[in-house]
């Protein structure tokens, strides 16, 4: 029983990262119609940013949560302005190819600099230790990750679905030319949205740093799983991305407990099944 | 996907293409005698075939598969296993690997053509990743070691393939046959229907073409030929390993096609030779190869979308009117 709850917890943690990453992908895709292949690399950059701040500058975890997303998000906006913006009139596949190339560059550079072995990142002192809940020993840091990612996901959902700013965003997704005609600076909104999505990936990276090792390839395999999550959920809805992310994390955790050999592949198998039954994805609509 | 209008071929251009094919095959036939290493040429030819098969899907069909390594790798594993463990001769080993890729292509194709564009790319990538984990865990592939020292054997029981030069000409014949098949398919009525579907699917359907069936057939053909490349490669180099099923391999074939020119007949061949040449020259640079690969991707997408052959033929037709 202990082991089952343990795997469930691991699943929830993974699900939290899937949710944050697929949420960022969905937000970017909604407005830019681009699948951001650098998302995994930017998640990795977030973790490295936190590691760098702690070991070289002496800035701790809490400030990293703020600084890393801003730095990496700014980097993302630079890419959007200088490169992606030239591709909007072309087929969307070019955006995918460009970001794939960028991901290779970023990961290659980091591997040259840091090798491929992981580097540890200390859990902040306030969150060290854990709580014994009787049926499970809950490390405080993991509890924090779950709560914080839920809060981040749902506030993003709230901003996009329930506020004025979000309504502009959704309107621009539907018809950018019309929104522009109403006097809203759509190109700037696109840049900021991209920066926000990338920042979200970096934030996930900072939160992941104390759990997984900080490693140049930590995002490379992650991004493929997140793509599968996105296909399962369908990119039409923000809430869909969040629920699918957490749900699949839990499913993966359960698979580790019941049939460990399949835990690497279970998400892909689910993707195949969903494609057979509902090709648009669980929450998606054909577009 | 408005990949390229260069696929539109007039009669004059098709004569040029035929002359080009003859020239290319002749050049490849004498290449070992003018100082090019047969081993390098064989590697480049295997990848050229892989890229041509991939181009059938992307360049002539507008579908970007980000998981084509699964066909290369599956065929490689099956032929290596067939040659080493079952003791099959060269031709049957290659055939069984290719058949395995065709079977996998049928399954994956039936799933993946349910979505288009970006989703198609993500689905193929995810399925390929699933296959990667399968080959990582299943015993017959020997995990990280791969299937090593695969015997080359004899072709039809006659030609001893342990001679590098004999092997080279066998690879060249396989490449030439597959290349001519692709050329034939692209310019057949079947190929024209595929083009119609790429340009305007609803209209093709309204004209009575079963678009899904055509797309599936093209996917299977592409997967099968990619498998042929993988099967040949694993026996020539006597190794089937995880590298060939990893997503970086899928990315590499996209790069070769993009660099050479999507939707052109010769583009993938040129791209494959350049990338393989680059990799063997830069092999001591280690991780920098990844960075350089990424840079080529970015430059191609931003400035060079028609690829080398595409740009050349655009320049040519501009200057000759």
Structure report:
The complex is a heterodimer of chains A (287) and B (321). Chain A has 11 helices and 2 strands, in the order ααααββααααααα. A two-stranded antiparallel ribbon of chain A has the order 1-2. The mean pLDDT of chain A is 88. Chain A has one domain: ABC transporter involved in vitamin B12 uptake, BtuC (Orthogonal Bundle), CATH 1.10.3470. Chain A is globular, with a radius of gyration of 19 Å. In chain A, 72% of the residues lie in helices and 2% in strands. Chain A has 287 residues and is mostly helical. In chain A, helix 1 packs antiparallel against helix 10. Chain B is mainly alpha-helical and 321 residues long. Chain B has one domain (5-320): ABC transporter involved in vitamin B12 uptake, BtuC (Orthogonal Bundle). Chain B has helices at residues 11-30, 38-58, 69-84, 90-112, 117-137, 164-186, 189-199, 201-206, 211-236, 247-260, 267-281, 288-303, 307-320; strands spanning 154-155, 159-160. Chain B has a two-stranded antiparallel ribbon. In chain B, a hairpin with a 3-residue loop joins strand 1 (154-155) and strand 2. The longest helix of chain B is centred in the C-terminal third of the chain and has 26 residues, at 211-236. The radius of gyration of chain B is 19 Å and the shape is globular.
């Amino acid at each position: 029983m202990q082991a089952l709850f343990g795997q469930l917890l691991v699943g929830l943690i993974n699900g939290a990262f899937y949710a944050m990453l697929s949420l960022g992908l969905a937000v970017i895709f909604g407005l830019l119609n681009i699948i951001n292949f650098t998302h995994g690399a930017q998640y990795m950059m977030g973790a490295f940013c936190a590691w760098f701040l702690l070991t070289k500058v002496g800035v701790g975890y809490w400030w990293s949560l703020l600084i890393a997303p801003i730095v990496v998000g700014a980097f993302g906006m630079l890419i959007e302005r200088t490169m992606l913006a030239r591709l909007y009139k072309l087929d969307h596949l070019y955006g995918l190819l460009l970001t794939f190339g960028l991901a290779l560059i970023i990961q290659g550079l980091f591997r040259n600099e840091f090798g491929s072995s992981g580097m540890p990142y200390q859990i902040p002192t306030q969150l060290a230790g854990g709580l014994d809940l009787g049926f499970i020993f809950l490390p405080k840091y993991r509890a924090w990750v779950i709560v914080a990612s839920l809060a981040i996901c749902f506030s993003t959902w709230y901003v996009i679905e329930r506020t004025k700013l979000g309504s502009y965003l959704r309107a621009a997704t539907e018809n950018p030319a019309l929104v522009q005609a109403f006097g809203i600076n759509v190109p700037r909104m696109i840049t900021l949205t991209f920066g926000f999505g990338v920042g979200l990936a970096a934030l996930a990276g900072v939160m992941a740093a104390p759990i997984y090792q900080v490693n140049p390839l930590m995002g490379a395999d992650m991004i493929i799983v997140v793509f599968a999550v996105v296909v399962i959920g369908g990119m039409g809805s923000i809430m869909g991305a969040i629920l699918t992310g957490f749900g699949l994390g839990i499913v993966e955790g359960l698979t580790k407990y019941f049939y460990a050999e399949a835990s690497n592949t279970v998400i892909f198998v689910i993707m195949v099944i969903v494609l057979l039954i509902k090709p648009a994805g669980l929450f998606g609509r054909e577009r | 996907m408005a990949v390229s209008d260069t696929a539109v071929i007039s009669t004059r251009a098709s004569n040029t293409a035929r002359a080009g094919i003859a020239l290319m095959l002749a050049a490849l036939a004498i290449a070992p005698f003018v100082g090019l290493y047969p081993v390098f040429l064989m590697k480049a030819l295997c990848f050229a075939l892989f890229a041509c098969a991939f181009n059938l899907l992307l360049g002539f069909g507008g579908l970007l598969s980000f998981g084509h390594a699964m066909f290369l790798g599956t065929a490689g594993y099956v032929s290596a296993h067939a040659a080493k463990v079952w003791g099959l001769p060269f031709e049957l080993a290659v055939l069984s690997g290719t058949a395995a890729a065709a079977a996998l292509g049928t399954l994956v194709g039936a799933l993946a053509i349910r979505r288009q564009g970006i989703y198609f790319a993500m689905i193929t990538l995810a399925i390929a990743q699933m296959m990667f984990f399968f080959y990582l865990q299943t015993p017959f592939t020997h995990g990280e070691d791969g299937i090593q020292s695969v015997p080359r054997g004899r072709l039809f029981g006659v030609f001893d393939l342990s001679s590098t030069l004999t092997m080279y000409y066998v690879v060249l014949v396989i490449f030439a046959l597959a290349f001519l098949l692709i050329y034939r398919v692209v310019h057949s009525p079947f190929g024209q229907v595929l083009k119609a579907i790429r340009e305007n699917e609803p209209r093709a359907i309204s004209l009575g073409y079963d678009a899904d069936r055509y797309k599936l057939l093209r996917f299977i053909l592409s997967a099968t030929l990619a498998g042929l490349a993988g099967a040949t490669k694993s026996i020539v180099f006597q190794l089937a390993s995880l590298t060939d099923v990893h997503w970086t391999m899928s990315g590499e074939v996209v790069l070769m096609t993009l660099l050479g020119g999507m939707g052109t007949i010769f583009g993938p061949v040129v791209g494959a030779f350049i990338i393989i040449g680059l990799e063997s020259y830069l092999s001591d640079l280690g991780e920098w190869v990844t960075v350089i690969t990424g840079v080529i991707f970015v430059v191609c997408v931003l400035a060079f979308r028609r690829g080398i052959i595409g740009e050349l033929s655009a320049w040519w037709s501009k200057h000759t009117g």
